[in-house]
Amino acid sequence: xxxxxxxxxxxxxxxxxxxxxxxxxxxxxxxxxxxxxxxxxxxxxxxxxxxxxxxxxxxxxxxxxxxxxxxxxxxxxxxxxxxxxxxxxxxxxxxxxxxxxxxxxxxxxxxxxxxxxxxxxxxxxxxxxxxxxxxxxxxxxxxxxxxxxxxxxxxxxxxxxxxxxxxxxxxxxxxxxxxxxxxxxxxxxxxxxxxxxxxxxxxxxxxxxxxxxxxxxxxxxx
Length: 222
Hints:
Low-confidence stretches: 1-6
Strand content: 25-35%
Structural class: alpha+beta
Helix content: 25-40%
Mean pLDDT: 95
Shape: globular
CATH architecture of the largest domain: Alpha-Beta Barrel
CATH superfamily of the largest domain: D-amino Acid Aminotransferase, subunit A, domain 2
CATH topology of the largest domain: D-amino Acid Aminotransferase, Chain A, domain 2
Number of helices: 6
């Protein structure tokens, strides 16, 4: 990456505070440091751990950190509920997104089109036709008793929520087209909302699975 490109790009971490605690903070900071190193960006000029912790002024909120050219900016917002969602397949082609940077235009377009179409959100598919990831979340589904997710080698973000799920249970990474998910029980994860059931996919109801609720209950570490 050139110095001009490095000056333009920023890194984002969106962190959940629950009961005044930051249960996944260490994982966020680890991913951020990896991205700084891999992309050759300017490291933070302040202690991010302390900066984030001092921003937690209420028990339940979302902390957004943006790091650009070594400077960190913090914003906060209230956390939202984890109701089930209607998901569509985006027309937007997924391009590799292995670091959580500010260059998120593909996801913004997919989300906006989903909302205009009456869905809550969208999942993007690679040029080869494989399901990749949502606009701000990782996808999981149950297949004959096995939990599955899109493979990391599709160029998806190493999501903090995805990593937490892989810590909790055995997960099979797969390359599948959207049609392979028809009739499966689906859910999404991210580090803000935890586990969220998908209620409909491509306009069709998604069957529930009791194991999803069990994973949701175990998602947030003590």
